[in-house]
Structures are given as structure tokens and as C-alpha cells.
Amino acid sequence: MNTPRIRVGIDVGGTFTDAVAVDATTLELLGQVKVPTSHHHEDGVAHGIVEALDRLLEQTGSAPADVAFLAHGTTQATNALLEGDVATVGLIGIGTGPAAVLTRRLASFGKLELTPGKRLPLAYAHVTDPQDTADVRRAVEELKGEGAQVLVASQPFSVDRPEGEQAVLDAARPYGLPMTAAHEITSLYGLHKRTRTAVVNAAILPRMLATADLVDASITKAGVTAPLMVMRCDGGVMALDEMRRRPLLTVLSGPAAGVAGALMQERVSEGVFLETGGTSTDISVVRRGKVAVRHATILGKTSYLSALDVRTVGVGGGSMVRIGGGRVTGVGPRSAHIAGLPYACFASPDQLRDARVDTVRPMDGDPADYAVIDAAGGRFAVTLTCAANALGRVPEGDFARCDPESARATIAPLAAHLGTDVVTAATRILDAGIAQVKTVVDAMIRDYRLDKDTAILVGGGGGAASVTPHLAHTSGMEGRIARHNEVISPIGVALALVREQVERIVPGATQEQILAVRAEAERAVVAQGAAAEGVEVEVTVDPRTNTVRAVATGATELRTQDRSHRADDAERLHAAAASLKTDPAAVHVLAGTAAHTVYGTETHRRLRPTRRPIRIVDVDGVVRHHAADAHVETTTVAGAPEVLARLVGESTSYGDGGVRAPALRLLLGARIADLSGVLDPQPLLALARSELRARAADEPVVAVLEVRS
Predict the structure, then answer these.
(1) Are strands 478-481 and 456-460 parallel, antiparallel or unpaired?
(2) How far is residue 184's CA from residue 181's CA, in Å, rounded to a whole number?
(3) Is residue 1 packed enough to be buried (19+ CB in 10 Å), middle (13-18) or exposed (0-12)?
(4) Rounded Cα distance, 615 and 705, in Å
(5) pLDDT by residue (tens digit) across 229-286?
(6) Within 13 Å, how many C-alpha atoms sit on residue 249's CB side?
């Protein structure tokens, strides 16, 4: 039997490196391995990556040639900044007159604090004329004398006129130092923020370059021909050469891997993803099929790095229970791991004989109110996982599942100490544990205006069952634990799409300028290995900031998933009805393509206009998009320009806030083309025409429009 082509995802954590193999066609998990992260090996984390790959190939019976896709995520960049293990940056400011005043102020970046008492190592030199090679080389010599290991060139308005920064890099090239220009990191205005982002990027550049070279050489030596990709902090992957240019994109990529897994494997279109480990829970949002990103804060300052909006709560599966005054007073932040104690629920009933409750101080300076069990088998921590098992919240086969008898035996002495029964005590523990999580989840639902009718809670990580099921139960929201939740991060790495984001400040952007930004993003992902036929580009034009943003995504190969089961008409109808919270008899098919069906109903309220909520359901029965009130119309590629011009004209709003075109989405082939980020009717129609190009004239097109108030 032929072995399948596989997609390999490797997640390099602080303690362990996890790797998975996924069938490239069916997306079925074929194998998983865990090895210690090789921080102290002479090849660094590269050694652990290759070791994990070797074990994975052996476990699955695959050959290096069977690897169709290989990507890894790493915390190395994040850890370098957290630990202050960075290179000395030589910053060359460029300018004369007022521009020189602005650039000389950039020397203050040497005051940025990496860790308490340790500042960013930075040396500054100035050149007035970037074309003066001798002056540039004098500046480089000066910076090298101060210990610079990497160079950054920065000049005001280099976004529009990059020639000065480029000339400095050209003149400095003979010195052999890694170099970058501020305009290469971001094309947004703001000299201070742009340069700060470039400087932080440069500080981790030498270390990341060394690792990239070792990993690349090791993978090639192992016989893998698939290009190596690296996880980005916005949920996508990038080519290794792109990582060499912008390693900062890997900062904060750890949580991004997990939500990428939820997005791709669990096919979440609207919801909150909670990745729970032993000590903490990372909370992030998927809205309308996309991860929520924002400009990240790095070293206490905002940057131009677009990263996953993740909020961390100090509660995990190993969080210890705190008691006082005859009640549960809290859970965490200390975990059993920090206290050096085993989870009580994973002990045998015999080890838990003669148990009595005591309280301890896990670390010096902690309050002495953390509950432990002293029993025949020794001392054990009472954790959130113990309570979840005692209450039956942990499903059969889950990573955190234990013997129910042991779980109840763990909670029983604590319940007696609190003067209640096991179920009540376990419930109080879980209530206390998820209280902080619920506060953050509620805030993110408000911040991103998630539709509670369709939003779901998805739990990932080894500790998922200790948080997500009880949160779903108490909040009334639908919730589930992701399949293979304990390895959801490497699965996310294996399934992630190539991604690139291009941002430009373009006051009064014309159709041509918007289309140019779109084309640039599309070219960037294709250059990194994405199949051109499958690239999707989302364009947003923000008239308040004059920002044009294009996010392109694509797979490295066009996959036609040969799944044994597709949802039939009845299953898709029931999925739509459940999402619409109405009887299936009241739901109608409004339109469809081979890949998606649009279902709708009507809602009537006294003194209010009739609303027509819709749901778009894919062939697997997953709700891919929803709208509270939408107009749906079917046409063809040939007829679409005229039809769309009419629909957009009829649906555009005019008011004190300016012109607001409808939110438009097009169902084309296997895709949902999201054009909702554009408010101006003419650029919107131009983008729609660009989506239609190179398609057959008789191909069906479904337009879904939502009027903006």
C-alpha cells in the first residue's frame, strides 16, 4: 500500500517540542511525537526539530519524500525578548535640518527595557547624506566599535522615498553584518513607531538567522524536499527566506498556532478559542472565519506588528485550589507544576487513603492558602482538573481524563472540610476557576461584536476539559473540545495557510491604488509558495486613517479533500436551522454553488421592518458565514458586473458619516470572496471585477449584501 503524502507541523515550546503528521488529502492525524526542546544542544532548537521529524517519519512509516508540507512554530523570538538575549543594534539615522532632529531622537531606543534592569543594547550614528559612501562607512565603523552586531537604517518618509535607506545598506554591505531598513519592516507612516519595530526586529535577527540556517540545512540533509515554512504571529505561515528578513513576525506565534488549528481543523467560523495548559489559558477570537489580529505591544510599546489578539488568564488545568473561612476563595495563579506536586486525581484510590486537607505556600511570598491532600501515598495538589473529573466534565479518552473514583476521592476530604458534598465542592472550584476566564471571554465577545447565536467556545490544549465545558455550561453558549486538543498547536502549524499582509497609508486611495495593494499581497504569498489559483485576498480600506490593508492567504498545494462523508441536504438544512434558532420548516434555500448553500428565513416584529437572516453552509455542514439581515442574488460571471453595480447602487447609504457601500461577499467556485472591508462603491466594484477575472462566463456567482446603517 502506498503511504500518503503528509503535512508536518512542529511546535517548539519552552519545555517540549511537539510534532504531528497529517494526511495531506484527508487531513486525518496520522502520528504525533514529543521530544524535549533542545535549548542547550550545540545546534540549539534545530536539533529537537530534526529529532522530532525523524521519530515522526519512523512512527508513520513515511519517507522524507512523502512530506508535502513542513512548518514549525517557535517561541525563540519571544523568549529572546523576554530574557533579554538579543544582539546589539547599530542604528543609522539619516537626515539634515529638521529631519536630523527627528532621527537623532531615535537614539532613545537604548532606554527600552527588555527585562528588569536590562535595556535594549543600541548604538546610534548619524549620516546627513546617504549617498556619501565614505560618511556611511564612517558611521558603520563607529557602530562596530561600540559592539553593533546588526544594522538598521532609518529616514523620515522612507515609506515614500526608500532610496536613502537603501543607499546606506548598499554602502554598509561589505562589512558583512545582518542589515535591515525601516521601510522594509512596515510601510506605515510614523517614524518613531516604524523604527522601533525595525530595531526590535533587528535585535533578534542574528539569533534567528543562525537557527534558520541550521534548521534549513538539517531538513535538507534529512532528505525533505518540501520548502520549510515558519509560523507567523497572525495565524499564517511564511517562507524561511521571509522569516530571515522579518523574524519579528514569529514573536507571539505560540498562541497563533492553536487558533490556526481551531480555524482549519475545527472549521470555526464564529467563536472564542481557549487554549488551556497547566498554568494559564490563552483566549482568542475567530470572527466570520478569520482570526482577530491587532498591532501588538512589544516591550511595553505599541508596534506595527500585526499579531493575534490573545489575552492570557492565569488559570489552567494544574491551577491549585485556594481555601479559607470554610469556602473556596479562588483558583491559581500557582499551579501544581510550580509547587512540585502531582495532581491528586491521577493518584490511585489506594494512594489517596486516609486523606486529610492541609494548606501550603507553593513559593516563598505566596499566601499559605493553597489546598493539598496529605494521604497514604504522599502529598498531592488539588487542581482544576481534579474538580472537572469529579464533576464528569472531562470526556472519555481526553488527555486530562482520570479514574472517576480517584477524582471523587480527591474532592471528598475537601468537601468534608468545607461542610458540603463532592458535587457541590467540585462545582464551587470550577466556578471560581472560570470566573476570570469568563470575564475575558465576555469582554472579547463585546469587543468583536460576536453573534452569540452562532458563536461557540472551542477548547484546545491539554487542559481544555478543565475550563471549556464548565464555561459553556454556565454561560449557556455552545462549547466543545477540539479533536486531538493536546496537540492542537502543531496541528495548526501543519494546516496553516501561507499569509502576507500589506499595509499602505494612501490618502484618498483610488481604485488603481487599492488594486495595486491587493496585487502586491497576492504576489507575496505566491512568491512564498502558495498556489496562485487558490489565493484569497481580503482588502480593507479605513477612511479614518487612510490605511489600505490587503491580507492574502493561500495553500502551498491545491488540495481536493477526498473525504468519505459530505453532509447531505437534510444535514445542511438542520445546521442552518440550528444556527438560525428556528424550525427547519421555516428555512429556505436562497442560492448556492457547488461548495456552499445559502439558507434564509424571515423574522417579523411589531413596528419593525422585516429582517431576513441568512446562513452560508459548506458541503461539510459547517456554517461558514451568517448575517442578521441580508439580500441574496444569483447571477453569472458574465452578468455580475451589471448586477453588482445595480445592487451596490441600491444598497449604498449616504449620511453625515459619509458614503457606506454594503458589505459584499461573493460565492465563487469553492470560495467566499469577502469584500466587506471597502466602504466606497467604486473601489468595491473594481475589487469585485478583479475576483471575477479569468473565470468562465457562465459560472454561477452568488452575491450576499448587508446594508450598513
Answers:
(1) parallel
(2) 5
(3) exposed
(4) 13
(5) 999 988 899 998 888 888 888 887 878 888 888 888 888 888 999 999 888 899 999 8
(6) 23
